[in-house]
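User: structure tokens for this one?
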Amino acid sequence: MKIKNYKQSITKSKTDQKLPLLSVLFLLLSVLSMALLTLQNMRYTVTAPWTFETERVEILPQQTLPVWSIPVMAVLLICCAGGLRMVQDRRQISDIFRNTVLVLILVSAAAVGFYGLRRAMPAISNDDAGICWSVAYELMENGDTASFEPGGYLVRYPQQAGLVCLHLMLFRLFIENETQSFYLLTLFLFLITMLAGALTARFLETKGDRNRSIWCAEPLFLLFMLTGLPAWLYVGYLYGETASTAAMVVGAYGLMRFIQGKKCRLLWLLLILPAVALGVLLRKNTLIFVIACLLVLLVYWIRTVFSWQPLLCMILLMLTTVLVPRAALNWLYARADTGAQPSQGIPATAHIAMGLQDEWDGPGWYNDYNRVLFDAYGEDSAATDQAAKQEIMQRMAGFMADPGYGMDFFSRKLTSQWCEPTSDAFYCCLRWFDDQAPFMAWMRSEEGQGVLRGALSLRLGMLYVGGLLCAAVALAAAIRKHRRPSAGMSVLFLTVLGGIAFSLLWEAKSRYCVEYLTALVPLAALGYAQAGGKWFGLFRQEKGEWDDE
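Assistant:
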């Protein structure tokens, strides 16, 4: 027994020596990424397709905001956070008070969302979201299985089976009001995102210690979420982003409690696994969050000298990620009863090849290349994959032959998605409204779009500055004190970094950034809270430790 314990201590000491270096490199990459996005957001403003009667992405010099507005607002937020800490130093904030505030904000957000739906119900669009609805409707009402046959929608995009299954379930439950029930479901999931995100921000700030009465990151998180409502309330109602984002935030909170909790840890798996299952079922982008979870669990498994709990969590996560989407697709084909086998669909390489093209509508933005290529090869996934790989190799060879152009292309592609403050929301939804209330009509006008674009651009810049502060604080702690970032911070930053890498390679749409920006919100709130705590410590002429706030 003594020999075994000695070997475990040796193994643990070696991993402890290696992991701080990995933490420093990881946090340095986070700092550089946030700094780049902050700089680009201060320099440029991006207009999405169909905005102001245009059908292309335009990257323009920043006109909606003065350059100084973002740093000035960041300083004001830091001062507000420091003032909040000063108030709490004199009078403790009770759990009852902050929970009451959280509930009131959630109720207010629900009222605003419900009012928006009642006043301007979006019509069923003719893009992917509307097609998924139509597939479910035709299958349920008419027994139409054209989508499962050659040339059909699910033959090209089998990954949409999860959203079709969700519509089928809602059809069974609500029949006549399925459309409204889908919008109400996404509103409910948005509220779940706010609740889980607020608890995540609270957990990050207090490090899971309920005795630490700190209440700063949580209200900042709620502020960022509420100021993002103009985009959130439209992106979510049209597609699966709201559901998958809610699943991601709930899963992140569950993972933190699983790793850093002191009791009932395995019960948190009952929260993590259904959340991940819902996320990967509705949007494959959730795979980036799953990979982040697996990396954090792997490090935790090594640090605990290969204990069985994190290993079990990793195995169950991988099984859930692989089996749930496949089970949904198989069930849907069995439900259609056409005798056809589930299609492999358009390969991922076709989406990547499209994302490397520099077309008139924007750098790497969707231009239907993947569908046209798939149809040209007779819906043969293997042949399409080979053709797409050749296109990728040609594009990469062109970038290597002209590095300046390559850098310019990826810079424009990154900026076009991550500095587009509306997340493509108005393009996605305002086109499909049947009956617009006066406020909705103003939103669609040039004046309304300009005001909202400026406000959302300022919010976006504040998010990036907050993420930069959070990463810088954690980096300083890792260098000076060999202190690793917490599990929650790690999984959220890894998700954001994975989203950046994904957006550089995949077909470009700013809507795809919604999930990753939401993962950034708790980190940005924590960054301002930490900076405010440092300012408060200096005001009291105390040393104050950034990483302890």
